[in-house]
Amino acid sequence: MEIPLLDLKVQHDAIQHEVLAALAEVFESQVFIGGPKVLELERKIADLCGCRFAVGASSGTDALLNCMMSLDIGPGDEVITSPFSFFASAGAIARTGARPVFVDIDPRTFNMDPDKLGAAITRRTRAIMPVHLFGQVCDMDPILAVAGAHGLAVVEDSAQSISATYRGLRAGSMGTAGCFSFFPSKNLGGIGDGGMIVTNDEALFERLVTMRNHGAKPKYFHRFVGGNFRLDPVQAAVLLVKLQYLDSWSGKRRANALYYDERFRGSAVETPHVLPQCVSVFNQYVIRAHDRDRLREHLTHSRIGSEIYYPVPLHLQECFRPLGGRAGDLPHAEQACREVLALPVYPELTGEMRAYVADQVLLVAGKGEGVAYEGADRSRSAAAVH
Ligand SMILES: *Cc1c(COP(=O)(O)O)cnc(C)c1O
């Protein structure tokens, strides 16, 4: 048996007639920039999130960058984010000339620890960018409280968490703006790059729309320097087809996560912890293991795909060396980088496949002490569905 970390071909095989028909419509229309497909997807994503507005973007990265630029964040400003994320979160901040400021994670959830936010705020702080990692929303109430008390914008990096909830509210809908990615490996993936921003702020919405067209309003009259941050109708057409399946796919991911939780309970494998306020969409199912690298080698040998998200925390990335981050500064993020391993959790995984994955993980990492970190609790059931 061969089990990849993600298998997009099985997904495509199940929906290819609809996808190809949607693409044919785009070719028939010869509308390749903007148009009804993009507007329809924007409306549907806004509705899904319970937000008033949505603005398509050329990628999740550009969604974040557009938000930063539209909020007028730039040199001299600081934006607080997580050190344990895909690079784009901090990259979007740095590209405006602002300084990314990293606060350590809650080792149970891998998400930004709101208790550490207060100490990171200075008179230069302009915004907070929480990252809803692996499909789970951050503990938003305390983050929003700190932001409110200091008059800061909140831009939710929801690239991995479309349709996940926190106290019944959707990822991306609680802050000033929320950003999504349609990178093919995300829960709602396109056939190339794409992204989306949602917001309830009408003035910000207008600015986001203008910013994505080089700041032009009307055409050829440029109010400010923006970019080409547009989502194209080819992506929108495919995403509209796939959006119909998102709930069902998320449910299957959760069922797979629950299965692993049960298999790993009482073993040395540390399973993901989901806060009681959250329903995760498990973009990734990430365990911690003591001897992570040996486990990964065994899985590779057993033809099971796995991945290390992420091997290096952002404060220790070479390009951010000028910011002065040192090893030991953010110990929970650094420890996570040494221990995490993502296992296949995609919706089309069969019962036989996930059983084989669990068997092989337990064979190597099941016995012994397991990992120890603050708040580790070996008795809980992580992926409880609420
Ligand atoms: C994927 C991702 C992004 C960037 O999205 P792209 O569409 O690849 O540009 C940003 N943040 C996080 C956390 C992501 O996982």
What is the secondary structure topology, with strand pairs?
Layout: H1 8-29, H2 36-49, E1 53-57, H3 60-70, E2 78-81, H4 88-95, E3 99-102, H5 117-120, E4 125-129, H6 140-150, E5 153-157, E6 165-166, E7 169-170, E8 177-181, E9 195-199, H7 202-211, H8 233-243, H9 246-264, E10 278-279, E11 285-288, H10 292-301, H11 331-339, E12 340-343, H12 351-365
Parallel strand pairs: 2-3, 2-4, 4-5, 5-8
Antiparallel strand pairs: 1-9, 6-7, 6-10, 8-9, 11-12
Bound molecules: pyridoxal-5'-phosphate.
**Bound small molecules, which ones?**
pyridoxal-5'-phosphate
- CATH class category label of the largest domain: Alpha Beta
Secondary-structure arrangement, i.e. CATH architecture of the largest domain: 3-Layer(aba) Sandwich
Give the proportion of residues in helices: 25-40%
